Amino acid sequence: MTKKLIVLFALFALVAAIAGTVPVAGPSYSVKLLRPSVVKGTVLKEGEYRVNVGTDSVTIGNGKVSVEVSAKVESTDSKFPTTAIRYTEEAGKSKISEIRFGGTKTKVLLAD
Questions:
Q1: 67 three-state secondary structure
Q2: Which terminus of the chain has a smaller tally of CB atoms within 10 A, N or C?
Q3: What pLDDT shows up at residue 19?
Q4: Considering all CA atoms of the chain, what is the largest pairwise distance in Å, rounded to the nearest integer?
Q5: Which residues pair with 108 in a beta bridge?
Q6: Mind listing the pLDDT tens digit for each residue in 72-106?
Q7: Residue 48 contacts residue 62 (beta carbons within 8 Å)
Q8: How many domains does the chain have?
Q9: Does the residue 5 lie in any domain?
Q10: What are the helix (H) ranges across the chain?
Q11: For 7-56, what is each residue's pLDDT tens digit?
Q12: Do 52 and 66 contact (CB within 8 A), yes or no?
């Protein structure tokens, strides 16, 4: 019985270790939304969010909510001094159209 318990625990530890090493497709950034923002029809409340940038899509989430949206990733000639979010107003709601990541040359243009 003790050997089975040890083997089970070792197997669980191995699975947990492997799960923590899954690579992300691209870079990941932290952004703070200062007002409710719409992404792909989903309203994101104010707060801290993690933005994972892929080759042709972006995932924005904070653990509770996660939204994946098509995006065009661009690189500029100079670095952005701060992170900036550009909005478009639609039906009285703020829709994220572009995110510029501070300290990098990367910006993403979100698709509708």
A1: strand
A2: N
A3: 54
A4: 64
A5: 73, 99
A6: 999 999 999 999 999 999 888 999 999 999 999 99
A7: yes
A8: 1
A9: no
A10: 2-19
A11: 556 556 656 556 544 444 589 999 999 999 999 999 999 999 999 999 89
A12: no
